[in-house]
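Researcher: Before we compare anything, I want clean individual predictions. No alignment, no superposition, just each chain on its own. First chain goes here; please echo the sequence and then give the structure tokens.
Model: Echoing the first chain and its structure:
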Amino acid sequence: MQTDPLTWSGGEPSSHTRCLAVPWQTRPIFLFMAYTVLARKYRSQTFDHVVGQEPIAQTLKNAIKTNRVAHAYLFTGTRGVGKTTMARILAKSLNCLEADDPTTEPCCKCDSCVAVNLGDDIDVIEIDGASNRRIDDIRDLINNAVYRPARARFKIYIIDEVHMLTTEAFNALLKLLEEPPSHVKFIFATTEPQKVLATIQSRCQRFDFRNISASDIGKQLKSILKEEKIKYEDDLILPVAKLANGSMRDSLSLLDRLISTGIQPLTAKLLEEYLGVPNSEKVTGLISAIGDTDAQAALKAVEELSGAGLSEVQIADALVEYMRDMMVIKAAGSKSELVILTEQQKKRAEELAEKFDVAGLVYNITTLEKLRWSLKNSESARPLLEATIIRLAMSEHFLNLDSLLSQSNPVQDKKKVNIENSKSSPQQPAIPGQALLQLSNEIESFKRNWTDIIKELGPGTAGLLSTAEPIGFEKGILTIEFPSSAAIKKEMCENNGRLEQIKSGLKKRIESLQDIQLRISQGTSNDKTQQNNSKTRSQRKNEIINDPAVKTVIMGLDATINNIEDN
């Protein structure tokens, strides 16, 4: 008998109930398949598939092959670098049911391997140290550890965030870690190893997981996108890899968020629209304005970035990151492995880097880093940011001392410089260039004429060498000694190619020094040096202001010192 779809079936309805009977054939059936996030779906399953931690994987493989597996391991590193993944791989390798002994290639198909992957294996117990941190929790663990595993070779305890355990809980573990049962293995994971008691660490083999490089993350992202058959543009990969800050899990989470937009192909523009990443063109526009000393354009660029939803801290971070790449390009070249940019991005960064020198970029980065801490705690973040941007834009790139000295000629500008030599002590007459060529290589000749010799090297170098003196000249090696109180000047003479500059300058002026080699030394400390070290800030400031090189720069630029910072 066919049932009328509009009549009640299955019993007499109550007087106040009206229902419809619908044949099951007409009912729609909805099947929902649970979505597995990329970080879980593409978690490494064997040692050979581990990304970015190959040395640790190889060491553990060797331990298994030689039957030297420790009873306790401590895996340390930042989040998302593979600590728990490596722990599970090690657990599967030790307990794989398809192998007769521990193996470096677990099958990933047996009941034990599958259960470990799901985190619910009866013999591999995963514990969250944050929520099971009390001594009672550890006592339960100790009591259960004496029982042999139910089906596998070892009972393995994986304790994540182990640093969260209380001191009492750590102390309860000590005896078990010192004399563990043969069937028990411990794998501890932590992001803060300094909080793990030294007595615990001494009983473990420690492995420090490094941050995964952006290039390795980028390769993995490309592989996953290809496997998922998702279209993307190449300029997306590196920004996502860099945003992850060395964490593979974070990079896959970012990729998941982009895929969830439903837009293909995935592009860098999606990062800006959906993840709040600074627009690269707007950032480079701001840096270009700073490089051109165009304060008005710089403020306009800040307004555009702010209008795109970026906070003041995010703008400062974006500037620091981009200027860091420019600094590396200036110092090490665009082909350096330290520069993680596409070819087009490198070309743009090289163009912008020409507007700055290394010293200016170092100053900008340190200034912005100091600023970001103030921005986080200020109610006037926007004015602070704008003031700093104007300061950078008006700084004329903070040229280094040699550049400033080469551009300044204080003697020619009579209006800006008024040097009164009449009241000063009589100056030793300068030795003519021809006479300099005739100087003998005897050390006494160097000492007598040292002041005039260094004058010929330029005011900047002369200022640095003013406190030094030649103390020996043997076998073609000229030794110049600085007093112990002039360590900074000595260091400046040894760095940035200045030593070669000094040697080249001496060769040009003294014929007998064509094969000269320079050695710079420093005198030993004495009571006078210790007394100088205790000078007041005011005394140190006066010394800096009266330094010949500093005075030359100030006069040449008609400048005023408004602040002196201690490094």
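Researcher: Okay. Second chain, same rules.
Model: Second chain and its structure:
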Amino acid sequence: MPAALRLASVLLFASGCASLVFETLWFRRAGLAFGNSVAASALVLSSFMAGMALGNALAARFAARVRRPTRLYAWLELAIGASGVLLVAALPALGPGLAPLFRPFFDTPWLLQTLRFAAGFVVLLVPAIAMGATLPLLIHALRRHGDFGHLLGRLYGWNTLGAMTGALLAEHLLIPLGGIYGAAWAATLLDVLAAAGAFALGRSGGRRPAAASAARAQPTGARARLPVRARRLLLAAAATGAIALAFEVAWFMMLVQFVPNSSAVFASMLAVVLGAIALGSLAGARLSRRLPSWHQRASELALLVPVLAALSHASLALWMSPLIDAFEAAGLYGAIQIGALATALISVSLMGPVAFASGLLFTAIGRALEQEIGGAARSAGLLTLANSAGAAVGPLVAGFAMLPRLGVETSAQWLAGSYLLVAWWLRPLRVRTRGALARTALAAALGLAALLAYPNGSLRATLERLVAAEYGDDEEVVALREGIVETAIVTRARWHGQTLWYRLITDGYTMSGGSIDARRYMRLFANLPAALHPGIRDALLISFGVGNTASALTGLAELERLDIVDISPEILELAETIRETPDADPLHDPRVHVHIEDGRYFLQTRRRRYDLITGEPPPPAFAGVVNLYTREYFALMRARLKEGGIASYWLPVSQMRPVDSQAITRSWCEVFDDCTLWEATPGDWILLGSRPPADATLTPVTARRFGAQWRDHAGATRLHEIGFDRPEQLASIFLADAPFLRSWSRAVAPLVDDHPERAPAVVGSWEALPPEFTWIRDTAATRDRFARSDWTAEHWPPSLREASARTIALQPLVRLALLDAQLPPVARLAAIHRSLDASGMHELALWLLGSDVDRQRAARALAAAGSDAPAVRLELARGALADRRFDEAARLFGRLPEALQPSEVALLHAFSLARAGQPDAARRAARRSGLDRAPEWADAWRAIRTTFRLADPGGATAAPERG
């Protein structure tokens, strides 16, 4: 192989690597300028591909006239490096600059999207044109070093292998090590190296192509009219580009149902696609050298692509089936995780075959096109022009037309079928031999058979099996929406035929739900600020979920307007499905205004200010979400608050490392001087901050205003359900104020736009508090912080501070209840006893008893319908005990068969009798069930005897328990 071709392969590899690093950075930064919505991302991608197509077109038109193509190539690489760094720096500032231009068209979506496309095209024009022109120029420079098909396949293959490497380097190495700017300068260095290689290539023989032979290769008049065969080949090239990009969208939509939807995983999946295309192109190069006429069978290859697509689609279910079986057999509900190796294997089997065929077809079409029109530079330019133009259209067609209407599986089937049209365009002009016709007929028959037998529906069946495996048989899928943003699933939790609540699953992740712990922290985003603010009239909610926070906000009597911003129209459509939840559908409230938009872009481009801004976006590990947790984003929130306005935000501590929680907390506290932290549930904390009045004076709300929500019957009911019977109990979730939080997070760098690597790379979870959070277990220290806090003095009603501080002692019980800790019987009994004696909280006692308001509601409905099932009686007994109706609880527990043997029910029966003042009956119940003789229940029974001064079986009276 000529040394010039080897050097060209290396520099194209470096160029492809740099280009993908830059593209990764540009699209991240473009999200700050144009929004991270799928519409905005697709339009920016399409505008970039359109810019590349323009570069291809210029190369097709003028490359053959360039006398020193390697030198021009080198300057283009330097232009890419220079413009790339400038774009990385300039894109974040572009959004505010374009906002006045875009603002008049926010209510005209098609015009707004057109402006986004145009702006993206202009901004990315210089590097996109340069990238589009590089490959045709280099092919022109090296034309004399080999057959065009071999040259095209090899150079395109190595360039795409570089792109694959760049996708992995950007997410897994460069950004984690150097942040956004460090990665940008690394990409610039690669471009400089590619330019240096191009200068060296020019000196070593790639400097001047054979001008005379190049001129002879260009037939006169060819630019005016292309042959019919050439036009069909270009149509096929455009179609393969469009189908490949549309397939990428469909593949990613399939895979994210089973693997974490993070930027790192997305980069790995993209690398699989690029790697397979590169290998296909390199295979085409080898075939061009060994079988010069192989490209004449390109139509047969296109006919067989539906077979590859159908087999690849079926492989997803085949991979997942044994994994789901293994998790079901182990009983690991809610713990299914697909490891890195399994993710790689599944990605390769799903995406690899069709992507490999795409690379082969690209090389074959290019070889056939060059035979038709001659001229390496022009052929390469027209080929890449058609392919890039198709790639610009593919994501738009898939995202805006196919997926919302057909769903991901039917879309994939139609895309596979589109290769039959490609095969038609690739057919030879002349009738071939009988053997060739037979091969074509066989390939066509196989392709049609694959389409007819396409495993449409296998993905949905696998998803339903996965939901059953993760959440158990008590949940069923009731709705599924496939759209341009995500695949959203709603499941219904049922108990003996009664609906308890709904769960929203997006791309395989439980995004929201109506369980009691979810309702608790989501309602508090509204209820906690509402208690501290003199009157919330204008509110902004970022991320709708299942509507828990929205319902809490619309339940505020003083509210006049609520703007809801969500990136997913599918989630808002599914709100109709979950109207049976305890909260009414807030989207029907006339005060509500819905905006389908990226939350950050909304804040950046709107002028309205709010009394309350609250948000619960996905955890920052999810692709495209990290910029909703950075210091710059929090500053945007603060800027959109009215004076005295409050911001509340989700800190999902159970789904990230403690150091990540500290980084986000530090960013929050650098923006909000009065930052505070609250423990809504053990794994879901709330960051609170405000924008003080201009005169820097703040008067605490009155006790009457603080408790206004409890005077409204509907509001009081919602607060009681989540464990707040009295206003002062809001203090029980207090953790820390600004001085403590700044000290706690001082050693960790803040999460900022330029360093997204400071957020977690994957979504994790924990069932028990990690050691780094043990400080929150110190109830006495927390109570002291609340009592001594300057923030408390400024915000909390003075008459409630002492009573509020006392409620902090209850939080350990709440933590135990919501973590569903597997406590020994004696410890659980002690917690139940304390909740009944000290707190007066009905819900806390109910949670510790293993029930909640949803199960109680269902049990009462079943009992009213005549059911006398043991499970129904057990729930009614738990409710009676939590209500302090001890006689009724004892009667109900006593009617249960489980009370006749040592068990938790028998223990609660004896406990209820003791609480009801029936010591003799409690002793008899313990003897009858064997509770007093069973070793595993001995400590718990001894605690009952001691607490209630019951005589032991021998007649002695136990000493009262102290403490």
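Researcher: What stands out in the second chain?
Model: Residues 458-506 form one domain. Additionally, The chain is about 60% helix and 10% strand.
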